[in-house]
Design brief:
about 260 residues; alpha+beta; Creatine Amidinohydrolase; five-stranded antiparallel beta sheet; 4 helices; about 25% strand
């Protein structure tokens, strides 16, 4: 396993990618409403990235046909935007995308309610975000990836939700996906020790019901096995000698 530690210059480029990414997320968030298509949201995201000098890294990645993965309700991740997929009142929509800037990547995901959503859905969104921040607390040099995994998992399961195990977070840098894997559940191994300069993506994917998922025939979309809703929250995180730094953010935009 080769984990690359990033230099100050590399971190600066990833932070700029993160600023572009956060702005694209914000523009998509503002557009979410009943009646909009997932295709329109994807177009907003791509246009914003390109207008700021970033490239939509998901577009064409292993054949993926859009700039943003947009997943609705029981779709966990990697939903494909479509003109005919229209958001309705009460839906939960997740936006997951990556910006490439001068050879470096930044990745994040957000989940939102469309109009008025159920109390159960509101709580799932809240806990999913909380579980990321529980994992973030473990991002201290000397801890292990497994400490992050355990913190995320404990938050999710004590709230009665299913923490998806078929997919994980990951390292990131010149490639969208690098070592190490960052599971949202404990494993038999502690995983690599955290060191300053490591950059990882922590991304809880939580289901209202079972953690089991199905892989769709389109080759991309992952859905909950029981048809219950799912939520996704992710940020790109830099390990420093002090507190961790979230790179996928922009001034004035709430995480």
């Amino acid at each position: 396993m080769k984990i690359t530690l990033k230099s100050r210059g590399e971190i600066s480029l990833m932070a700029e990618a993160g600023r572009i990414l956060a702005t694209a997320h914000e523009e998509m968030r503002k557009a979410i409403r009943p009646g909009i298509s997932t295709y329109e949201l994807d177009q907003i995201g791509e246009k914003t990235m390109r207008s700021m000098g970033g490239n939509p890294a998901c577009l064409g990645y292993e054949g993926y046909p859009a700039a943003v993965c947009i997943s609705v309700n029981d779709e966990v991740v990697h939903g494909i935007p479509k003109k005919e997929r229209i958001l309705a009142e009460g839906d939960v929509v997740s936006l997951d995308t990556v910006v490439e800037y001068q050879g470096y990547h930044c990745d994040s995901a957000r989940s939102y309610g469309v109009g008025q959503i159920s109390p159960e859905a509101e709580r799932l969104l809240r806990v999913t975000k909380e579980s990321f921040f529980e994992g973030l607390k473990m991002c201290i040099p000397g801890n292990h990836i497994g400490d992050i995994s355990r913190a995320v998992f404990d938050c999710v399961t004590r709230n009665g939700y299913g923490s998806v195990r078929a997919l994980t977070g990951h390292g990131i840098g010149t490639s969208m996906h690098e070592e190490p894997n960052v599971p949202n559940f404990p494993t038999f191994f502690k995983g690599p020790k955290l060191k300053p300069g490591m950059v990882i993506c922590i991304e809880p994917m939580n289901n209202l019901g079972t953690y089991d998922v199905n892989f769709s025939d389109d080759g991309w979309t992952v859905t909950t096995a029981d048809g219950e809703i799912s939520a996704h929250y992710e940020n790109t995180v830099l390990i420093t000698k002090n507190s961790p730094v979230i790179l996928s953010r922009a001034d004035g935009i709430e995480l």
